[in-house]
Amino acid sequence: MQEIIDAIENRSGREVFESLEIPSTYRAVTVHKSDVGMFEGMKFQDKDPRTSMHIDEVPVPELVAGEALIAVMASSINYNTVWTSIFEPVSTFGFLEKYAKANPNGQRHDLPYHIIGSDAAGVVLRVGPGVNAFAPGDRVVAHCLSVELESPMGHNDTMMDPEQRIWGFETNFGGLAEFAVVKANQLMPKPEHLTWEEAASPGLVNSTAYRQLVSRNGAGMKQGDIVLIWGASGGLGGYATQYTLNGGGIPVCVVSSPEKAQICRDMGAKHVIDRSVENYKFWKDPHTQDPKEWQRFGKKIRELTGGEDPDIVFEHPGRETFGASVYVTKRGGTIATCASTTGFMHEYDNRYLWMNLKRIVGSHFANYREAYEANRLIAKGMIHPTLSKSFPLEEAGQAAFEVHQNQHQGKVGVLCLAPKAGLGVIDGELRSRTLSEINRFTNS
Ligand code: NAP
Protein backbone atom coordinates (compact mmCIF):
# COMPACT_ATOMS: atom_id res chain seq x y z
CA MET A 1 0.00 0.00 0.00
CA GLN A 2 2.92 2.34 0.78
CA GLU A 3 4.07 2.22 -2.89
CA ILE A 4 0.64 3.43 -3.97
CA ILE A 5 0.67 6.27 -1.44
CA ASP A 6 4.22 7.22 -2.54
CA ALA A 7 3.20 7.27 -6.22
CA ILE A 8 0.26 9.52 -5.36
CA GLU A 9 2.34 11.87 -3.24
CA ASN A 10 5.06 12.02 -5.94
CA ARG A 11 2.40 12.67 -8.61
CA SER A 12 3.86 9.82 -10.66
CA GLY A 13 2.79 9.30 -14.26
CA ARG A 14 0.45 6.75 -15.80
CA GLU A 15 3.23 4.19 -16.49
CA VAL A 16 4.19 4.10 -12.80
CA PHE A 17 0.58 3.58 -11.76
CA GLU A 18 0.07 0.87 -14.40
CA SER A 19 3.14 -0.99 -13.12
CA LEU A 20 2.11 -0.84 -9.46
CA GLU A 21 1.06 -4.12 -7.95
CA ILE A 22 -2.47 -3.95 -6.53
CA PRO A 23 -2.73 -5.65 -3.12
CA SER A 24 -5.32 -8.44 -2.93
CA THR A 25 -7.07 -6.94 0.13
CA TYR A 26 -7.73 -3.50 1.61
CA ARG A 27 -9.18 -1.91 4.75
CA ALA A 28 -12.77 -0.75 4.59
CA VAL A 29 -15.53 0.55 6.85
CA THR A 30 -18.34 -1.98 6.84
CA VAL A 31 -21.64 -2.86 8.42
CA HIS A 32 -22.42 -6.56 8.86
CA LYS A 33 -25.57 -8.37 7.77
CA SER A 34 -25.44 -10.37 11.01
CA ASP A 35 -25.87 -7.07 12.96
CA VAL A 36 -29.08 -5.95 11.22
CA GLY A 37 -31.37 -6.55 14.24
CA MET A 38 -28.98 -5.16 16.87
CA PHE A 39 -30.85 -1.91 17.53
CA GLU A 40 -34.38 -3.32 17.54
CA GLY A 41 -36.61 -1.66 20.13
CA MET A 42 -34.18 1.23 20.72
CA LYS A 43 -35.04 4.90 20.17
CA PHE A 44 -33.71 6.48 16.93
CA GLN A 45 -31.37 8.79 18.85
CA ASP A 46 -29.90 5.93 20.95
CA LYS A 47 -28.84 3.79 17.96
CA ASP A 48 -25.07 4.22 17.99
CA PRO A 49 -23.06 3.95 14.72
CA ARG A 50 -19.91 3.33 16.78
CA THR A 51 -21.20 -0.12 17.68
CA SER A 52 -22.30 -1.16 14.17
CA MET A 53 -19.50 0.23 11.98
CA HIS A 54 -16.45 -2.03 11.65
CA ILE A 55 -13.05 -1.89 9.97
CA ASP A 56 -12.50 -5.06 7.95
CA GLU A 57 -9.80 -6.34 5.62
CA VAL A 58 -11.74 -7.20 2.45
CA PRO A 59 -10.79 -8.65 -0.95
CA VAL A 60 -10.34 -6.26 -3.91
CA PRO A 61 -13.36 -6.84 -6.18
CA GLU A 62 -12.95 -7.68 -9.85
CA LEU A 63 -13.66 -4.81 -12.26
CA VAL A 64 -16.22 -5.20 -15.03
CA ALA A 65 -16.71 -3.08 -18.15
CA GLY A 66 -17.07 0.62 -17.50
CA GLU A 67 -15.68 0.51 -13.96
CA ALA A 68 -12.61 1.95 -12.24
CA LEU A 69 -10.70 0.99 -9.12
CA ILE A 70 -9.58 4.06 -7.21
CA ALA A 71 -7.13 4.55 -4.36
CA VAL A 72 -9.18 6.61 -1.92
CA MET A 73 -7.18 9.30 -0.16
CA ALA A 74 -10.19 10.72 1.68
CA SER A 75 -13.93 10.35 1.99
CA SER A 76 -16.64 11.94 4.12
CA ILE A 77 -19.60 11.14 6.34
CA ASN A 78 -23.02 11.71 4.86
CA TYR A 79 -26.34 11.31 6.56
CA ASN A 80 -26.75 8.14 4.49
CA THR A 81 -23.75 6.76 6.45
CA VAL A 82 -25.88 7.29 9.55
CA TRP A 83 -28.97 5.65 7.99
CA THR A 84 -26.92 2.60 6.89
CA SER A 85 -25.18 2.22 10.23
CA ILE A 86 -28.38 2.25 12.28
CA PHE A 87 -30.30 0.13 9.72
CA GLU A 88 -32.95 2.85 9.32
CA PRO A 89 -35.46 3.23 7.78
CA VAL A 90 -34.52 -0.15 6.24
CA SER A 91 -31.35 -2.25 6.16
CA THR A 92 -29.24 -1.47 3.08
CA PHE A 93 -28.59 -5.20 2.60
CA GLY A 94 -32.01 -5.30 0.90
CA PHE A 95 -30.65 -2.91 -1.77
CA LEU A 96 -27.63 -5.15 -2.36
CA GLU A 97 -29.85 -8.23 -2.70
CA LYS A 98 -32.07 -6.38 -5.18
CA TYR A 99 -29.04 -5.28 -7.22
CA ALA A 100 -27.84 -8.89 -7.39
CA LYS A 101 -31.24 -10.01 -8.74
CA ALA A 102 -31.46 -7.18 -11.29
CA ASN A 103 -28.11 -7.57 -12.95
CA PRO A 104 -25.36 -10.24 -13.19
CA ASN A 105 -22.75 -7.54 -12.43
CA GLY A 106 -24.73 -6.69 -9.32
CA GLN A 107 -24.15 -10.15 -7.87
CA ARG A 108 -20.66 -9.14 -6.64
CA HIS A 109 -22.34 -6.54 -4.40
CA ASP A 110 -24.49 -8.99 -2.43
CA LEU A 111 -22.12 -9.85 0.42
CA PRO A 112 -22.47 -10.38 4.19
CA TYR A 113 -20.74 -7.01 4.62
CA HIS A 114 -21.53 -3.61 3.12
CA ILE A 115 -18.62 -1.24 2.42
CA ILE A 116 -20.28 2.13 2.86
CA GLY A 117 -19.48 5.71 1.88
CA SER A 118 -20.74 7.89 -0.98
CA ASP A 119 -17.86 10.36 -1.39
CA ALA A 120 -14.24 9.93 -2.44
CA ALA A 121 -11.20 11.85 -3.58
CA GLY A 122 -8.24 9.85 -4.83
CA VAL A 123 -6.39 8.47 -7.82
CA VAL A 124 -7.43 5.97 -10.50
CA LEU A 125 -5.49 2.71 -10.17
CA ARG A 126 -7.12 0.47 -12.79
CA VAL A 127 -9.93 0.77 -15.33
CA GLY A 128 -12.13 -1.96 -16.76
CA PRO A 129 -12.82 -2.56 -20.46
CA GLY A 130 -14.45 0.29 -22.34
CA VAL A 131 -13.14 3.12 -20.14
CA ASN A 132 -11.44 5.79 -22.24
CA ALA A 133 -12.05 9.05 -20.41
CA PHE A 134 -9.97 8.15 -17.35
CA ALA A 135 -6.67 6.30 -16.88
CA PRO A 136 -4.44 5.11 -14.03
CA GLY A 137 -2.82 8.08 -12.28
CA ASP A 138 -5.75 10.52 -12.83
CA ARG A 139 -6.59 12.55 -9.74
CA VAL A 140 -10.34 12.42 -9.27
CA VAL A 141 -13.37 12.89 -7.10
CA ALA A 142 -16.36 10.57 -7.41
CA HIS A 143 -20.02 11.52 -7.39
CA CYS A 144 -22.39 8.87 -6.13
CA LEU A 145 -24.81 8.29 -9.01
CA SER A 146 -24.65 4.72 -10.28
CA VAL A 147 -26.81 4.05 -13.36
CA GLU A 148 -27.08 1.25 -15.90
CA LEU A 149 -28.72 3.34 -18.69
CA GLU A 150 -30.07 0.30 -20.51
CA SER A 151 -33.60 1.70 -20.40
CA PRO A 152 -34.75 4.67 -22.53
CA MET A 153 -36.17 6.28 -19.37
CA GLY A 154 -32.81 7.57 -18.15
CA HIS A 155 -31.62 9.20 -21.33
CA ASN A 156 -33.10 12.69 -20.78
CA ASP A 157 -32.09 12.84 -17.14
CA THR A 158 -29.95 10.02 -15.78
CA MET A 159 -31.66 10.29 -12.37
CA MET A 160 -34.73 8.83 -14.14
CA ASP A 161 -32.95 5.58 -14.96
CA PRO A 162 -35.00 2.77 -13.35
CA GLU A 163 -31.70 1.17 -12.31
CA GLN A 164 -30.48 4.34 -10.56
CA ARG A 165 -28.61 3.66 -7.31
CA ILE A 166 -26.63 5.69 -4.80
CA TRP A 167 -23.09 4.29 -4.74
CA GLY A 168 -21.91 3.20 -1.28
CA PHE A 169 -25.52 3.14 -0.04
CA GLU A 170 -27.46 1.06 -2.55
CA THR A 171 -24.27 -0.53 -3.94
CA ASN A 172 -21.26 -2.08 -2.26
CA PHE A 173 -17.53 -1.10 -2.46
CA GLY A 174 -18.10 2.51 -1.32
CA GLY A 175 -15.74 5.33 -0.45
CA LEU A 176 -15.03 4.85 3.28
CA ALA A 177 -12.14 2.55 2.45
CA GLU A 178 -8.61 2.45 1.07
CA PHE A 179 -9.94 1.40 -2.37
CA ALA A 180 -13.31 1.85 -4.03
CA VAL A 181 -15.00 0.53 -7.15
CA VAL A 182 -16.96 3.10 -9.15
CA LYS A 183 -18.45 3.34 -12.59
CA ALA A 184 -16.07 5.51 -14.63
CA ASN A 185 -18.95 7.92 -15.33
CA GLN A 186 -18.94 8.78 -11.62
CA LEU A 187 -15.50 10.34 -11.95
CA MET A 188 -14.73 14.06 -12.18
CA PRO A 189 -11.47 16.00 -11.97
CA LYS A 190 -10.26 16.71 -8.44
CA PRO A 191 -10.40 20.46 -7.59
CA GLU A 192 -6.66 20.99 -7.29
CA HIS A 193 -6.65 23.91 -4.84
CA LEU A 194 -8.11 21.59 -2.20
CA THR A 195 -6.61 18.95 0.09
CA TRP A 196 -7.81 15.37 -0.37
CA GLU A 197 -10.25 15.62 2.53
CA GLU A 198 -11.60 19.01 1.40
CA ALA A 199 -12.03 17.73 -2.15
CA ALA A 200 -13.88 14.61 -0.96
CA SER A 201 -16.32 16.49 1.24
CA PRO A 202 -18.67 18.38 -1.13
CA GLY A 203 -19.61 15.46 -3.47
CA LEU A 204 -22.99 14.10 -2.40
CA VAL A 205 -24.44 17.13 -0.62
CA ASN A 206 -23.10 19.73 -3.05
CA SER A 207 -24.57 17.92 -6.08
CA THR A 208 -27.88 17.34 -4.27
CA ALA A 209 -28.18 21.00 -3.27
CA TYR A 210 -27.34 22.06 -6.84
CA ARG A 211 -30.14 19.98 -8.37
CA GLN A 212 -32.68 20.72 -5.64
CA LEU A 213 -32.17 24.49 -5.68
CA VAL A 214 -30.47 25.61 -8.90
CA SER A 215 -31.25 23.08 -11.62
CA ARG A 216 -34.42 23.29 -13.73
CA ASN A 217 -35.04 19.74 -12.50
CA GLY A 218 -35.38 21.22 -9.01
CA ALA A 219 -36.55 24.67 -7.87
CA GLY A 220 -34.74 26.54 -10.69
CA MET A 221 -33.77 29.46 -8.45
CA LYS A 222 -33.42 32.86 -10.11
CA GLN A 223 -31.85 36.17 -9.10
CA GLY A 224 -33.69 37.89 -6.25
CA ASP A 225 -35.49 34.76 -5.05
CA ILE A 226 -35.94 34.52 -1.30
CA VAL A 227 -34.87 31.03 -0.23
CA LEU A 228 -35.73 29.63 3.19
CA ILE A 229 -33.03 27.09 4.06
CA TRP A 230 -33.48 24.59 6.88
CA GLY A 231 -30.24 23.43 8.54
CA ALA A 232 -28.47 26.22 6.68
CA SER A 233 -25.00 25.43 8.03
CA GLY A 234 -25.39 21.62 7.79
CA GLY A 235 -24.40 19.18 5.05
CA LEU A 236 -26.96 20.21 2.41
CA GLY A 237 -27.76 23.63 3.84
CA GLY A 238 -24.14 24.86 3.78
CA TYR A 239 -24.24 24.49 -0.01
CA ALA A 240 -27.81 25.75 -0.43
CA THR A 241 -26.78 28.96 1.38
CA GLN A 242 -23.75 29.36 -0.90
CA TYR A 243 -25.76 28.67 -4.08
CA THR A 244 -28.42 31.18 -3.07
CA LEU A 245 -25.82 33.90 -2.52
CA ASN A 246 -23.79 32.93 -5.60
CA GLY A 247 -26.89 33.03 -7.79
CA GLY A 248 -28.17 36.40 -6.59
CA GLY A 249 -30.83 35.05 -4.26
CA ILE A 250 -31.62 36.09 -0.69
CA PRO A 251 -31.18 33.29 1.86
CA VAL A 252 -33.17 33.10 5.06
CA CYS A 253 -31.10 30.64 7.08
CA VAL A 254 -32.60 28.51 9.86
CA VAL A 255 -30.13 27.02 12.37
CA SER A 256 -30.09 25.91 16.01
CA SER A 257 -27.19 27.68 17.71
CA PRO A 258 -25.35 31.03 17.80
CA GLU A 259 -22.21 29.34 16.34
CA LYS A 260 -24.18 28.05 13.36
CA ALA A 261 -25.85 31.45 12.95
CA GLN A 262 -22.40 33.04 12.83
CA ILE A 263 -21.26 30.60 10.10
CA CYS A 264 -24.25 31.65 7.98
CA ARG A 265 -23.44 35.32 8.52
CA ASP A 266 -19.79 34.66 7.64
CA MET A 267 -20.96 33.06 4.38
CA GLY A 268 -22.74 36.33 3.60
CA ALA A 269 -26.32 35.64 4.74
CA LYS A 270 -28.07 38.63 6.29
CA HIS A 271 -31.21 36.88 7.50
CA VAL A 272 -30.73 34.13 10.09
CA ILE A 273 -33.27 32.51 12.41
CA ASP A 274 -32.02 30.57 15.44
CA ARG A 275 -34.82 28.04 15.89
CA SER A 276 -33.65 27.14 19.40
CA VAL A 277 -33.96 30.78 20.51
CA GLU A 278 -37.36 31.21 18.82
CA ASN A 279 -38.41 27.80 20.21
CA TYR A 280 -40.96 27.00 17.50
CA LYS A 281 -43.35 24.20 18.47
CA PHE A 282 -44.96 23.27 15.16
CA TRP A 283 -46.47 20.17 16.82
CA LYS A 284 -48.62 20.44 19.96
CA ASP A 285 -48.37 16.68 20.36
CA PRO A 286 -47.14 13.87 18.02
CA HIS A 287 -50.43 14.00 16.05
CA THR A 288 -51.47 17.67 16.08
CA GLN A 289 -49.81 20.66 14.48
CA ASP A 290 -50.18 24.24 15.65
CA PRO A 291 -50.93 26.65 12.78
CA LYS A 292 -50.36 29.56 15.18
CA GLU A 293 -46.70 28.52 15.30
CA TRP A 294 -46.58 28.42 11.48
CA GLN A 295 -47.90 32.00 11.55
CA ARG A 296 -45.32 33.08 14.16
CA PHE A 297 -42.58 31.58 11.96
CA GLY A 298 -43.96 33.28 8.82
CA LYS A 299 -44.13 36.62 10.65
CA LYS A 300 -40.46 36.29 11.65
CA ILE A 301 -39.49 35.65 8.01
CA ARG A 302 -41.45 38.73 6.88
CA GLU A 303 -39.79 40.86 9.58
CA LEU A 304 -36.40 39.89 8.17
CA THR A 305 -37.25 40.22 4.49
CA GLY A 306 -39.22 43.45 4.62
CA GLY A 307 -42.57 41.73 4.31
CA GLU A 308 -41.84 39.07 1.68
CA ASP A 309 -42.45 35.32 1.82
CA PRO A 310 -39.98 32.73 0.50
CA ASP A 311 -40.10 31.98 -3.23
CA ILE A 312 -38.43 28.66 -2.43
CA VAL A 313 -38.24 26.53 0.69
CA PHE A 314 -35.24 24.17 0.77
CA GLU A 315 -36.77 21.24 2.70
CA HIS A 316 -35.22 18.14 4.23
CA PRO A 317 -36.16 17.87 7.94
CA GLY A 318 -39.55 16.47 6.82
CA ARG A 319 -42.43 15.73 9.20
CA GLU A 320 -41.33 18.19 11.89
CA THR A 321 -41.17 21.23 9.57
CA PHE A 322 -43.11 20.40 6.40
CA GLY A 323 -46.47 21.90 7.49
CA ALA A 324 -44.70 25.16 8.32
CA SER A 325 -42.73 25.06 5.06
CA VAL A 326 -45.88 24.74 2.94
CA TYR A 327 -47.59 27.51 4.95
CA VAL A 328 -44.80 30.12 4.68
CA THR A 329 -44.01 29.64 0.97
CA LYS A 330 -44.99 32.59 -1.27
CA ARG A 331 -48.10 32.33 -3.47
CA GLY A 332 -46.87 30.47 -6.58
CA GLY A 333 -43.67 29.43 -4.81
CA THR A 334 -41.89 26.09 -4.57
CA ILE A 335 -41.16 23.70 -1.73
CA ALA A 336 -38.25 21.54 -2.92
CA THR A 337 -37.74 18.45 -0.79
CA CYS A 338 -35.07 15.74 -0.83
CA ALA A 339 -35.47 14.08 2.55
CA SER A 340 -37.43 13.47 5.73
CA THR A 341 -34.91 13.25 8.55
CA THR A 342 -37.56 13.67 11.29
CA GLY A 343 -40.18 11.42 9.67
CA PHE A 344 -41.43 10.70 6.17
CA MET A 345 -45.19 10.81 6.79
CA HIS A 346 -45.63 14.54 6.17
CA GLU A 347 -48.77 16.47 7.07
CA TYR A 348 -49.66 19.90 5.72
CA ASP A 349 -52.79 21.93 5.16
CA ASN A 350 -53.48 21.45 1.46
CA ARG A 351 -55.66 24.57 1.27
CA TYR A 352 -52.52 26.70 1.54
CA LEU A 353 -50.98 24.74 -1.32
CA TRP A 354 -53.74 24.70 -3.90
CA MET A 355 -55.42 28.03 -3.18
CA ASN A 356 -52.04 29.74 -3.41
CA LEU A 357 -50.81 27.75 -6.40
CA LYS A 358 -47.69 26.49 -4.65
CA ARG A 359 -45.90 23.38 -5.82
CA ILE A 360 -43.92 20.66 -4.09
CA VAL A 361 -40.96 19.32 -6.05
CA GLY A 362 -39.28 16.05 -5.11
CA SER A 363 -35.55 16.00 -5.71
CA HIS A 364 -32.95 13.28 -5.29
CA PHE A 365 -29.17 13.46 -5.73
CA ALA A 366 -28.20 14.79 -9.21
CA ASN A 367 -27.47 13.54 -12.71
CA TYR A 368 -23.86 13.36 -14.00
CA ARG A 369 -24.15 16.76 -15.66
CA GLU A 370 -25.50 18.41 -12.51
CA ALA A 371 -22.84 16.74 -10.34
CA TYR A 372 -20.21 17.87 -12.86
CA GLU A 373 -21.49 21.49 -12.82
CA ALA A 374 -21.52 21.48 -9.01
CA ASN A 375 -17.93 20.14 -8.92
CA ARG A 376 -16.87 22.67 -11.56
CA LEU A 377 -18.02 25.53 -9.31
CA ILE A 378 -15.93 24.05 -6.48
CA ALA A 379 -12.93 23.71 -8.83
CA LYS A 380 -13.26 27.35 -9.90
CA GLY A 381 -13.30 28.52 -6.26
CA MET A 382 -16.84 29.90 -6.59
CA ILE A 383 -18.41 27.44 -4.13
CA HIS A 384 -16.34 26.21 -1.18
CA PRO A 385 -16.06 23.04 0.85
CA THR A 386 -17.68 23.19 4.28
CA LEU A 387 -15.33 20.75 6.04
CA SER A 388 -15.13 21.34 9.79
CA LYS A 389 -13.22 18.30 11.03
CA SER A 390 -11.56 15.07 9.80
CA PHE A 391 -11.19 11.67 11.40
CA PRO A 392 -8.91 8.72 10.59
CA LEU A 393 -10.59 5.73 8.91
CA GLU A 394 -10.59 3.77 12.19
CA GLU A 395 -12.73 6.49 13.78
CA ALA A 396 -15.37 6.69 11.07
CA GLY A 397 -17.91 5.36 13.63
CA GLN A 398 -17.24 8.32 15.93
CA ALA A 399 -17.55 10.67 12.93
CA ALA A 400 -20.95 9.17 12.03
CA PHE A 401 -22.02 9.34 15.69
CA GLU A 402 -21.37 13.10 15.76
CA VAL A 403 -23.42 13.63 12.58
CA HIS A 404 -26.23 11.46 13.99
CA GLN A 405 -26.26 13.55 17.19
CA ASN A 406 -26.20 16.84 15.19
CA GLN A 407 -22.96 17.79 16.98
CA HIS A 408 -21.19 18.64 13.72
CA GLN A 409 -20.93 21.71 11.52
CA GLY A 410 -20.98 21.50 7.72
CA LYS A 411 -19.23 18.31 6.64
CA VAL A 412 -17.10 15.78 8.51
CA GLY A 413 -14.20 14.22 6.59
CA VAL A 414 -12.47 10.84 6.85
CA LEU A 415 -8.83 10.21 5.91
CA CYS A 416 -8.48 6.89 4.12
CA LEU A 417 -5.05 6.39 2.47
CA ALA A 418 -3.98 9.99 3.15
CA PRO A 419 -1.40 9.64 5.95
CA LYS A 420 -2.38 13.02 7.38
CA ALA A 421 -4.65 15.98 6.70
CA GLY A 422 -3.52 18.84 4.49
CA LEU A 423 -2.06 16.90 1.54
CA GLY A 424 -2.97 16.96 -2.14
CA VAL A 425 -2.95 20.67 -3.04
CA ILE A 426 -1.49 21.53 -6.45
CA ASP A 427 -3.03 24.92 -7.27
CA GLY A 428 -1.57 27.07 -4.48
CA GLU A 429 -2.54 30.30 -6.17
CA LEU A 430 -6.30 29.61 -6.17
CA ARG A 431 -5.99 28.20 -2.65
CA SER A 432 -4.44 31.34 -1.26
CA ARG A 433 -7.14 33.45 -2.94
CA THR A 434 -9.94 31.39 -1.37
CA LEU A 435 -8.35 30.26 1.90
CA SER A 436 -10.63 32.22 4.22
CA GLU A 437 -13.69 30.68 2.55
CA ILE A 438 -12.17 27.18 2.61
CA ASN A 439 -11.39 27.52 6.33
CA ARG A 440 -14.73 29.05 7.29
CA PHE A 441 -16.11 25.89 8.94
CA THR A 442 -12.79 24.66 10.39
CA ASN A 443 -12.63 26.97 13.37
CA SER A 444 -16.33 26.89 14.14
P1 NAP B 1 -26.96 17.31 8.35
O1 NAP B 1 -25.55 17.70 8.05
O2 NAP B 1 -27.22 16.55 9.62
O3 NAP B 1 -27.80 18.66 8.35
C1 NAP B 1 -29.19 18.65 8.58
C2 NAP B 1 -29.56 19.84 9.43
O4 NAP B 1 -30.98 19.87 9.54
C3 NAP B 1 -29.07 19.76 10.84
O5 NAP B 1 -27.75 20.22 10.98
C4 NAP B 1 -30.05 20.64 11.59
O6 NAP B 1 -29.57 22.00 11.58
C5 NAP B 1 -31.32 20.58 10.72
N1 NAP B 1 -32.37 19.86 11.46
C6 NAP B 1 -32.28 18.66 12.05
N2 NAP B 1 -33.42 18.38 12.69
C7 NAP B 1 -34.25 19.45 12.50
C8 NAP B 1 -35.57 19.76 12.92
N3 NAP B 1 -36.27 18.94 13.70
N4 NAP B 1 -36.08 20.95 12.53
C9 NAP B 1 -35.37 21.81 11.78
N5 NAP B 1 -34.13 21.56 11.35
C10 NAP B 1 -33.58 20.39 11.71
O7 NAP B 1 -27.57 16.43 7.21
P2 NAP B 1 -27.57 16.67 5.63
O8 NAP B 1 -26.37 16.07 5.05
O9 NAP B 1 -27.87 18.09 5.36
O10 NAP B 1 -28.81 15.76 5.22
C11 NAP B 1 -30.12 16.12 5.68
C12 NAP B 1 -31.11 15.05 5.21
O11 NAP B 1 -31.11 15.02 3.79
C13 NAP B 1 -30.78 13.64 5.66
O12 NAP B 1 -31.97 12.96 5.95
C14 NAP B 1 -30.13 13.01 4.44
O13 NAP B 1 -30.24 11.60 4.39
C15 NAP B 1 -30.91 13.69 3.33
N6 NAP B 1 -30.20 13.77 2.05
C16 NAP B 1 -30.85 13.37 0.93
C17 NAP B 1 -30.22 13.43 -0.29
C18 NAP B 1 -30.91 12.97 -1.54
O14 NAP B 1 -30.26 12.87 -2.58
N7 NAP B 1 -32.19 12.67 -1.52
C19 NAP B 1 -28.91 13.90 -0.37
C20 NAP B 1 -28.28 14.37 0.79
C21 NAP B 1 -28.93 14.28 2.01
P3 NAP B 1 -29.83 22.97 12.81
O15 NAP B 1 -29.75 22.11 14.04
O16 NAP B 1 -28.73 23.98 12.72
O17 NAP B 1 -31.18 23.58 12.61
Write the layout of secondary structure elements.
Blueprint (H helix, E strand, L loop, with lengths): L1 H8 L4 H6 L5 E8 L16 H4 L1 E6 L7 E11 L1 H7 L7 H10 L10 E3 L4 E8 L11 E4 L2 E2 L18 E2 L12 E5 L3 E3 L6 H5 L2 H12 L11 E4 L5 H12 L3 E6 L2 H10 L3 E4 H4 L4 E3 L2 E2 L1 H15 L6 E4 L3 H10 L5 E4 L12 H5 L4 E4 L5 H12 L7 E6 L3 H9 L6 E5 L12 H11 L6
Parallel strand pairs: 11-12, 11-16, 12-13, 16-17, 17-18, 19-20
Antiparallel strand pairs: 1-2, 1-4, 3-5, 3-9, 3-20, 5-6, 6-10, 7-8, 14-15
Helix pairs in contact: 4-15, 7-8, 7-14, 11-12
The chain binds NADP nicotinamide-adenine-dinucleotide phosphate.
The site of NADP nicotinamide-adenine-dinucleotide phosphate (NAP) has 30 residues, from α4, α7, α8, β12 and α12.
Mean pLDDT: 97
Shape: globular
Ligands, deduplicated: NADP nicotinamide-adenine-dinucleotide phosphate
CATH class of the largest domain: Alpha Beta
Would you give the CATH topology of the largest domain? Answer: Quinone Oxidoreductase, Chain A, domain 1
Strand portion: 15-25%
Number of domains: 2
Helix run count: 16
Q: What separation lies between the terminal Cα atoms? A: 34 Å
Structural class computed from helices and strand pairing: alpha/beta
Largest sheet: 7 strands, mixed
Q: Which parts are unreliable, with pLDDT below 50 for 5 consecutive residues or more?
A: none
Number of strands: 20
Query: Judging by the overall fold, what is the CATH architecture of the largest domain?
Result: Alpha-Beta Complex
Q: Tell me roughly what share of residues is in helical segments.
A: 25-40%
User: Radius of gyration in whole Å, from Cα?
Assistant: 21 Å
Name of the CATH superfamily of the largest domain: Medium-chain alcohol dehydrogenases, catalytic domain
